[in-house]
Amino acid sequence: MPSHVHALMGLPEVGQLAKVMQAYKSLASRQIKTFDLGKYQNMLFEKGRFQLWKRHFDDLVVTTERQLRIKLEYIHANPVRAGLVSDPCNYMYSSASDWLENRPGIIPIDKDFAEVYETGARGRTPDT
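Now predict its structure.
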C-alpha cells in the first residue's frame, strides 16, 4: 500500500518481532532517504528530521489457521478497498497472485511455514 505495509511473518520466537521490525524500518528508511521523491520529499521530514515510520507498529500473534486466512484475505483485499486495483492479484506488491493463482509476484514469499503451521506445534492440527 502506498501509505502503509502489511506483513505476515513466521518467526521462531514472538519476541523477535520487535527486532525484525526495527531492522526493517531502519534499512527501508536509509534506502528511501536516498531517493528523489520530488513533491513528497517534504512530507517525510518532521522538524527537519527524516521521519518515514510511526514510532510503533500494530502486531497480532496469529494462533489459528482461521486467523491466518482472515488476515491474508484482509491484506489481499486492501488494495481493492483503496481503489488501486479491481482484482487483488493485479496489485504489484501483493502476494495475492502467489497464494490465489500460484503465480509468483515480485516479492518472494515462503509458503513452507504454512505446512508447519497446518500440522501444529506437536503434530496436532490448529483450530479452524
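Residues 1-55 form one domain.
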